[in-house]
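fold-stage: in
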Amino acid sequence: HLDRLQAAGLENITFAWAGPLEAQRPHYYRLQGPTFLLEHDNSRNRGTHIHSVWRDFAEDFGQSF
């Protein structure tokens, strides 16, 4: 996948954060580029319950067959 990331432009990858910086507090962050989305959601139970998502926009099931 690194070759696709480089072809899409590493400079096009962005980072977003929501939440406090203290430990054991709910928070969320994401890395997103033209070809992918990576999410880390730790927004429940005092920041002790994590969900993560990796999406590959070229190979998701959401595209037409």
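fold-stage: in (second)
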Amino acid sequence: MIGGSADIDICKIPLSNDTIHRRIKDMSENIEQNTAKTLANSNFALQVDETTDITGNAQLIAFVRFIHENDIINQFLCCRELPDFTTGKHIFQVISSYLEEIKVSWKSCIGICTDGAPAMTGHLKGFVAHVKELNENILVTHCFLHREALVTKFLPSDLKIVLEQCVKRVNYIKSRPLKSRLFSKLCQAMEAKYESLLLHTQVRWLSRGKVISRVLKLKDEMKIFFEQNKNYEFVHLLEDKIWCTKLAYLSDIFVIFNNINSSMQGPNENILNSTDKLVGFKKQITLWKNKAQEGNLEKF
């Protein structure tokens, strides 16, 4: 009626926030309904993890894996805020309430994957124990990624001290907005590749390697910053060649750990692939160790 060019111009007009919100909600509900319909007629495996968001509230996240039309489907199931307590009983109640809401029975669940926290795997009061009261045939596995992350926490005492000293100074800057802004200005003035450090957190398994790598790249900027703030203890550490060598070693080894951890993530990953990668990685470590004992340090 008003021409093709006008039609093109009208299509460029963005939708309102309410319209976008409504469409996202409709799509989300449609995905949830289709997933619930499929789960009601098939067996499924459940993956559950409890974490803490940036506001300090405990969040429970659940994923499902099931077979649909001869394909293995990995699907996000739900995210629910936990009450004041994060015990196995409360986790079980939250998941059970959601399954009842979408009319899915625990009898259809054939496997559960969790981390090794007592609230999850406790034999008497853990989440798994409550589930087994309803379905004793459920297979329980310990998350491969979590186990690999736990192994990387065991460090020789001298390297652990270096890591703690490094994290302490990083968090000193990142936890104070003014210090963080001043450090960013300093990095800009020195034309550094990066303008900020990364905050370390125990919840994010890959954060340690990224934190150490960033510190190593901003070592000179951090030295100047702590000199200006008269924090000479860390300045002396940055001037210590042995300490910096240990820092560089930690950076290298954590990058390797992070790479193997990341390689075990993804939609097509399974326990067979992960096992092969870990076995190969263990053989690689043995090879590096033998080479290092022979004086060959090309891998470090």
